[in-house]
Design a protein that fits this description.
9 helices; five-stranded parallel β-sheet; alpha/beta; single chain; 234 residues; 2 domains; Alpha/beta knot; binds ligand 9D3; Trp Operon Repressor, Chain A
């Protein structure tokens, strides 16, 4: 898979993509990731990427021309890919969305900044808009790091033998069970006896119960709308 990221701040992302699973996947040729500076696609002396909003109001808006020029020139080589605009107004990222994007041959990720991006970019350039959740970031770069991580680890052969190969709790909609390692007692806090019992059947049942109980108390929304009292209005 090829991933292009367009940003006014490539160094902010570079570090996040040079470690651990992503680094290994890049080194093995599983993903080909390229960072591009949006300012390289401007045509004025000051490399201007923003301007005042029509109609007035606070802040600046990112100009459309550098985005179109960037994406259109990246598309000259190879597969047009899917252009994903990272914005607070996008569809909320979740594991099914990540699984769908992970099957694409190419993603072109656009990181907004400032107060926003000219509407013509979302209407006529982006194939899809994605948000990573309901909190305010200063730009799309941290969201791009999150999306790239989530997509890369789903690529065939991206996970090594030490990472789990079976799909984890978010795909089966349950939280993880509690995990322990040595020592059996630390500062007076004991590892549950059942985990030291050697009874594998009992361990499996305990873990399953813990997963269900944890999900019920912490993330009832994962068990379906009926279980989620927080979604009740009256
Ligand atoms: C102060 C500007 N805000 C007025 C309502 C809107 C706004 C625009 C741009 C708020 C944040 C941003 C920058 N954020 C992103 O580009 C972003 C983001 C986010 O803030 N939260 C969750 N996911 C994402 S993806 C991109």
């Amino acid at each position: 898979m090829r991933i292009d990221v367009v940003t006014i701040f490539p160094p902010l992302l570079a570090g996040a993509l040079e470690h651990s699973i992503i680094k290994r996947a890049r080194d093995q040729g599983i993903v080909d990731i390229h960072l591009h500076d949006l300012r390289d696609y401007t045509d004025d002396r000051h490399r201007t990427v923003d301007d005042y909003p029509y109609g007035g109001g606070p802040g600046m808006v990112m100009k459309p021309e550098p985005w179109f020029r960037a994406v259109e020139s990246l598309r000259v080589q190879g597969n047009p890919g899917r252009a994903i605009l990272l914005t607070p107004q996008g569809k909320r990222m979740n594991q099914p969305l990540v699984q769908r994007l992970a099957t694409e041959d190419r993603l072109i990720i656009l990181c907004g900044r400032y107060e926003g991006v000219d509407e013509r970019v979302r209407e006529h350039l982006a194939d899809e808009e994605v948000s990573i959740g309901d909190y305010v970031l200063s730009g799309g770069e941290p969201a791009a790091a999150v999306l790239v991580d989530a997509v890369v680890r789903l690529q065939p052969r991206a996970l090594g033998s030490s990472e789990s190969t079976i799909e984890e709790s978010f795909s089966e909609n349950l939280l993880e069970y509690p995990q322990y390692t040595r020592p059996p007692e630390f500062r007076g806090w004991r590892v549950p006896d059942i985990l030291l019992s050697g009874d594998h059947g009992a361990v499996d049942r305990w873990r399953r119960d813990q997963q269900i109980e944890r999900t019920r108390t912490r993330r009832p929304d994962l068990l379906g709308p009926d279980q989620d009292v927080s979604e009740t209005t009256s």
